[in-house]
Amino acid sequence: MKITVAQSAGFCFGVRRAIKTALDTARKGVSVEMLGDIVHNEDVVQQVETAGVSKVESLGDGTGKTLLIRAHGAAKNIVDDAQRRGYHIVDATCPMVKGIHTIVDDFYKRGLRVIIIGDADHEEVQGIKGQIDAPVIIIDSAGNIPWENLKGVEHAGVVVQSTQKVENVQAIIAALRPHIRELEVCNTICKATATRQQEIKTLPLENDVVLVIGSQSSANTRRLYEISHNLNPRSYWIQSQKNIDLSWFEGAATVGITSGASTPKKTIDEVVRFLKKINR
Q1: Catalytic residues
Q2: Which CATH number describes the domain made up of 13-95?
């Protein structure tokens, strides 16, 4: 089989930066805590925890401790509470996500109603929502728009969860425009996500089998898989080479591989080595 790995596979800039920040902070020998996982990848989470970053469910006495803000960001009230408790803050939020925070704050100060296109329960969306002390409207699809909450809204600003599908965003905006007189849209899908989604529109058409590597908890990996599977039913979502079923490759001459933004290169390399081994 011919094996093709997408150029965009592996860590994005924001994930790479967050991991480096976490490891550099841990090396300083201070007590480091984090609310939740640094990114959505079990191997990376284990690496960071092994280095000395403790995942906690809630904040305690922060005297002499550091709170690491993970790549997805955090609401302002969490950071404020941590500082009141005595924590030193180290911010590993992806710069793209921080940019969304700034836009939301600007919308709020200008009196626009803030609309977030994204998954309501996702940590990134919760962090974006928590940048302002005002109700926001979260929309995950064009078929699930909360029209009741939009009654009387004439001026609104839209931001987008950085890993959303382009087509989903376009469909929601098209549905909103006739109902909101002034709709200011900032398409904040990050470049890395857009590049991966563009590649995954051709990879399934050019290969018999496609492997999408990433954690089951990774939103951007899920979207890559959904796009790929719609184009090629022989698309499979795996976390590592341990999940591979050899029957997937019966009669296959070509295999395409891509990954979510928080999948380590090591994991991708292991999958490639495994495929080469069975291909001998």
Answers
A1: 124
A2: 3.40.50.11270
